[in-house]
Design brief:
mainly alpha; 97% helix
Length: 95
Amino acid sequence: MSDGQDEDGLAAAAKRFDNAMARLDQSLSDMTGRLQRLKRIEVDTQRLVQERARLATELDKTSARAKRLDDSAHEVSRRLVEAMETVRSVLAKTE
């Protein structure tokens, strides 16, 4: 081989090496971006899990309160029926 061919081969090898390094840099940059997005997704997921737990606790408390109110409404209704029956009974006796 002649010196010109050696230089051409060396220049071609250097160009391939530079291209490979540029692709590696781009791949590294892409991977870094994906890792950052993954970390943001993990943080968002953790926040959603915490929010879900908070909402579940709130729902449990609200459901328990709704049950107590429903039970109270039934008791009030029962007492009203008893009171109305008592009033009817008293009115029937006076007639």
